[in-house]
Amino acid sequence: xxxxxEGDTIPAVELIDLDGNGFQLDGMIGAPLVLYFYPKxxxxxxxxxxxxxxxxxxxxxxxxxxxxxxxxxNTIKHQKFVTKYDLTVPLATDPDGKALEAxxxxxxxxxxxxxxxGIDRSTFLFDADGALVxxxxxVRVPGHVIEVxxxxxxxxxx
Length: 158
Known about the structure:
- By secondary structure, the chain is an alpha/beta fold.
- It has one domain: Glutaredoxin, CATH 3.40.30.10.
- It has 5 helices and 9 strands; from the N terminus they run βββααβαβαββββα.
- It has a 5-stranded mixed beta sheet.
- α3 (75-85) links the parallel β4 (66-71) and β5.
- The chain is globular and about 45 Å long.
């Protein structure tokens, strides 16, 4: 299984934006990027995470750092999610799971003794050259966005 590590470059995988248009993730090289994968729109942890990133978006913007949240939910679900919670963080969909696999965020999970494949809540910080600076895996939502913002600030002073 592939898994991106610090120092690796943004993978050349295609995602779908809210308008249903495909775009290459590596086309975002040129400015720092926070990319986060989350399991499902409109669930408690995922809603809180999207709200937190939305609440701090202006601070990321001030640092010149772009944000992008990704799940396997389709664009219609994403649009409803954005509207329901007035989210400002951009969302994209990974319908075939290729981005999740490239990042090592499509993992075996277990609930009530039953194993299944699912999304590992994970966040990745890339510098303007597209190199992975920091990866957070098995993310716990409370306080996470502050930690990512602090890392993004360090990027600017490096």
